[in-house]
Amino acid sequence: MRRRVLSAAGLTSTTRRGYQVALLGVALYVVLDAVAQLLPPHYSPISQAESDLAVGPYGYVMTLNFINRGVLSLAFIWALKGTIADSGVGAKRFRAGLSLLGAWAAGAVLLAIFPTDVPPTPVSLHGAIHLLVAIVAFLCGAFGTLKLSLGVRELPPLTRARGVIVAVGILSVFLCIVDLGTPFFAPRASAHYGGLFERLFLGSVLLWIAMVSAFSLSRSDVAPAPQPGGEDGLNSTS
Fold first, then answer.
1. CB-count exposure of residue 71 (10 Å: 0-12, 13-18, 19+)
2. Are 145 and 98 in contact (CB under 8 A)?
3. Residue 135 within any structural domain of the chain
4. Does the residue 185 lie in any domain?
5. Cβ contact 130:59 at 8 Å
6. 80 in a domain, yes or no?
7. Which residues span the domain enclosing 211?
8. What is the largest CA-CA distance in the chain?
9. Among 41, 93, 124, 158, which residue's Cβ finds the most Cβ atoms within 10 Å?
10. Nearest to residue 203, comparing CAs of 144, 129, 143, 142?
11. Which is it for strands 235-236 and 3-4: parallel, antiparallel or unpaired?
């Protein structure tokens, strides 16, 4: 049985497809978010949370987008795990970051299941669950990107882009703190600009996913198919 072993710069076709799904998902997310924003009841993107878009006659558009966010994030995690394994670096150092990003992905799906309460609607059970899930998912997304950013120097496809990847990871944590902390420390600013703060944070995580995916695809090639009698131990028989 022949076994293919990748070079440090190679990607399997499965890993490549994972990154491609992640990139397409990010693009689709932007489109669906814009469509949901343009449809009635025309919630304010500056003052109102993105989750409000899932409530109303066209709320299903944003609900689908929550699911899309979960799927694209899971596809990205799958692809990044492939890159880590194929690069031959220790996977342990990435485990916490991948787990945090996995919680972010699962949270997106749960947000689709439990809709929010649009103020001044009283808080319901599903609205309370939505809020709790959002807080946990946001924190996991922010710190997951930062944790993973600090390890990308070990991955050949991402070494040259380490600086900008780490910068966006730090920015995600900062924007997450601003988004979640403003209602407590500056409630008036949150009432006027809370929607903007949230969208900037979500955009930073999605930008990070898109950047890592794009860099991985642009700096790596699909490994060639194994040839009988290959050299340097790239092919083995048993």
1. middle
2. no
3. yes
4. yes
5. no
6. yes
7. 3-222
8. 71
9. 158
10. 142
11. antiparallel
What radius of gyration do the chain's Cα atoms show? 20
Residues of the chain falling short of pLDDT 70: 1-10, 220-238
For 19-71, the pLDDT digits (tens) are 999 999 999 999 999 999 999 999 999 999 999 999 999 999 999 999 999 99
Tally of domains within the chain: 1
* 228 is a domain residue: no
Q: What is the DSSP letter of 230?
A: -
Q: Please state the separation of Cα 95 from the chain's center in Å.
A: 16
pLDDT at 11: 85
CA distances (Å), origin 81, targets 14, 15, 75, 152, 158: 11, 8, 10, 12, 14
Helix runs in the chain, H state only: 13-38, 59-87, 92-113, 125-149, 162-185, 187-218
